[in-house]
Design goal:
Blueprint lengths: L16 H10 L11 E2 L2 E2 L4 H7 L6 H8 L5 E4 L3 E2 L6 E4 L7 E4 L7 E7 L8 E5 L10 E4 L5 E6 L5 E7 L3 E2 L1
Parallel strand pairs: 3-5, 4-6, 5-7, 6-8
Antiparallel strand pairs: 1-2, 7-10, 8-9, 9-12, 10-11
């Protein structure tokens, strides 16, 4: 067994390339069996399978948690306002007040985006305006004026949408 030391000229000093090569050749284990493992004093509590899942992932813990939390991708508006970045389901809900929602940057909503009118009654014409992109290659405003009207759109990497489904006659302008 070779032990590496921090001092100059010590046994296995990393500046001694012959000893380093020998040490690497001697270290041919394919597994390490241990009850506890730590790096820099921090205990590693994940299983090998859990670590392998993360191999190559460049996301932060917060990004992983947001991706796993479906509720973080749903927003219900009861008054006019901005749509939160990352929302994939926008629900417009007010029976007597027009809601004017605005998506400032469609690039923050890439993938499937659904906008739905969940107002219990009434035919108030809610709108959602997308800036910096389009709903369908041309139009930037959708209007929903009946319960359960909705539109499902795929937003691409340029911020432009392709309509997948238009339920109930959502108007585009």
């Amino acid at each position: 067994m070779v032990t590496f030391t921090a001092g100059l000229g010590g046994a296995g000093d990393v500046r001694d390339t012959d000893k380093l090569v020998t040490a690497l050749q001697d270290f041919n284990q394919t597994s390490v069996d241990t009850v506890t493992l730590s790096i820099g004093g921090t205990a590693i509590t994940s299983t090998a399978a859990e670590l392998n899942i993360l191999d190559g992932v460049g996301a932060t813990a917060g990004e992983i948690n947001n991706a796993a939390d479906v509720s973080a991708r749903v927003q219900a508006l009861t008054a006019s306002g901005a749509v939160t970045a990352g929302i994939q389901l926008l629900e417009l809900n007010h029976v007597s007040v027009i809601i004017a929602a605005t998506i400032a940057d469609p690039l923050l909503h890439q993938g499937i985006l659904i906008v739905k009118d969940i107002s219990a009654t009434g035919t108030t014409a809610h709108t959602c305006t997308i800036t910096g992109g389009t709903w369908d290659g041309t139009n930037t405003i959708i209007t929903l004026n009946a319960l359960n009207e909705c539109i499902m759109v795929y937003i691409d990497s340029a911020g432009d949408g392709t309509i997948i489904e238009n339920v109930g006659g959502v108007a585009l302008s």
